[in-house]
Amino acid sequence: YQMSIEPAIKYISVSDLHFDRKNPRLVEYDISPKASDDDILKILWDAMDVRELVQSISASGFFPHEALIVAIERGQNIVIEGNRRLAAVKTLLSPQDLTKKNGWNVPKISAGEQKKLVTLPAIISARKDSWRYLGFKHVNGPAKWTSFAKAAYIAEVRREYGIPLADIAAQIGDGYKTVQRLYRGLMVLEQAERNKIYDREDRYRKRLAFSHLYTGIELSGISSFLDISDDAETTEPVPKGKLTELGELCVWLYGSKKQARQPVVESQNPDLRNLNTVLSNRDGIAALRAGTDLSKAVEISRSPAAVFEEALLAAKRELTTASAYLTAGYDKSQSLLRTAGTVAEIADDIYSEMERKFNPKPKKSRLTES
Predict the structure, then answer these.
(1) pLDDT for position 44
(2) What domains can you pick out in the chain, each with its CATH number?
(3) pTM strictly above 0.90
């Protein structure tokens, strides 16, 4: 993964180095193009463990072989690789200001050590010449980004340089299917926002569980609900006639603060699978739209036979556990004895009805005159 770069390392003043507002990690936090370096520094500190790097650099200095990668854009030195390291150095060079402003615990270093950090080693390289290396390192390499950051980077390379997804996958050392899923998931989310049917800032939880979306749209029920396009490269995977359904899906996945609605999906297992089951069934969809709890909507979506079998097997498991703890766990409580009696009667009724259906008794014959 070689880059077309200037071979020499250049030392650049920290004051002339700027954070990359297009950095996929920062994109995940909806950084405004007008955000100041101080705003970005705070996000890097709070969300990306810059504190650990501050401790390391304060103790050992900045290693020259870990040069930043810098793109010169609009006359500015933009750090396209090494934003966390730049944040750590900026923090160490102004610890009193940042400690007072943000309440951070920043170690003080000597004037001599500060002088060593005033300029940092950098390699000058355009984004177009660096994307393969950055993608390999952060998408499938040792310093992996989150799934959303990966998707944002793949989409940027696809849009900016016109690289097909298959070529992106080959260059960064990841599987085509993974790259396709991440890209399609982001395209679905961006399509929802572009059409103003959902805003990720309106999500109920602080964290955007992006994997719920890109995994969910690969499942048959959710895919059919949205009528997802088979075109892996399209920027509009959901047809216009299904945009309302896309808005519904986003609320079910992420909730809505404005509507005071919590997401119905809290985890992929079992919630996402259950949502897929519900969206495969017309009655289940209607129930979910009416505000029915996901677990109840699942029951409505499934056949009575499947629900009955699952409930019966679950009851068996629970009763087996109760039996195992009977000797040590039963304290001669009359209330529990009555509960056991009720369970026994219910079990008798169920068994009798099952036996009747399994082996109906023949109709009794009557004596007649003929």
Answers:
(1) 86
(2) 10-125 (3.90.1530), 150-280 (no CATH)
(3) no
